[in-house]
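User: I'm putting together a teaching handout on how multi-component assemblies are represented. Below are the sequence lines for each component of a complex, exactly as they appear in our records. Could you produce the 3D structure of the whole assembly as structure tokens, so the students can see both representations side by side? Please keep the chain order the same as the input.
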Amino acid sequence: MLGSSHELAEVLGRVAMRDRDAFQTLYQATSSKLYGIIVHILTRRGIADEVLQDVYVKIWEHAGDYDEGRASAITWMATIARNRALDEVRRAKTLPVSAMPEGFDVPFDGEHPLDQQERSEELKRLLQCLDGLDREKREAVLLAYYRGLSREALSQRFGRPVATIKTWLHRSLSQLRTCLTQ
Amino acid sequence: MSPPDEDDPDAAEYALGTLDAAERAAADMRRRADRGFDASVVQWEARLSPLNEAFPELAPPSHLYARLMERLFGSGQPAGGTDPVRLMSLTRSVRRWRLATGAMTALAAALLAFVLIEPPPAATGKFVAVLQRDANSPAMILDVDIAARRLTIRPVSTEEPADKSLQLWLINPEVGGARSLGLLSNRALTQASLKDYDPAVIARATYAVTLEPLGGSPTGAPSGPPILSGKLLNAGH
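Assistant: Of course. Below is the structure of the complete assembly, with chains in the same order as your input.
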């Protein structure tokens, strides 16, 4: 796993050297992952297409800033994608959930692909820590992370004042941090 | 590098994504000026990044790559070459990073409800519920399309005892308590019609699964213990 993660970092290194073939390889290996992230947060396909392009422009321009000591290559790219999508959704002032269109085309054939694979130790650990949160707070954290819900959107969703949501989030995140460092 | 400021909630909320546009812009500026804050954001991004594994992949439209090339390098760019063996290996590494579970915990199931299923937009009348007894129990995921008055329930990790049946109930005082929606299979999707019920009843009901004698409750009301229950998310709207 370390080897393959390093392999992606190495391709990113060649992208930093302006290697266009490496950039194409990087795009082919990662664009489905990044597009999945963007579409989940934005929900609007038309904008998602533009955002995906912006993200790869940023990756092309900033590949030289990538520091393997700080994050894995895919985490670095996923963070760029998520942040770009969040900026877009905040700027558009859309409430993602209420603006949700018909579908995501996320295929589901009754047997999802998760069963055959191994979840990373890091995800297991994080899930255990999320398990320690109250159900509503856990939902709030997951909706924020996966669907880009703002405090206002969470406030509407849970029928609580924004100030309460803010307190929930701060306490939940602090509890997660404590749990993860144990 | 300055040590990260661990107690800064803005760094944590920036990584979670809950800041509004002005706060995000302010945080972006602060990241450039304050290394401790920037390091704290990066740490929070790293802490939460395992969640990225659960985002399902979705192939972008194929024309996007050509448009990206044109945007970066101008028109008339020849297609580059990619070593297919290399690409397969890389794609596998992203996939492996992507996800998944052997034995699904209930929490992982709940998480899937956020990433694999349409969340419940009130506008289109689609709702979802995660049925579980507590955070550590098995779970089922229930989708309700109110406009079509149709319910789909998807088993995730529930064991079905050989000599019992799992029965699904809609519980709402407005319809006099518990009404059977039929028997469930723990292996396949089960669909049920909700044509007998008002949208308001459907939206506000509790959904429960009980363990019943083979073939279902003989009395027409739940006779066994509820093993799972839940309410529709967003049902308050």
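A couple of points students might notice: The first strand of chain B starts at residue 126 and ends at 132. DSSP finds seven helices and eight strands in chain B.
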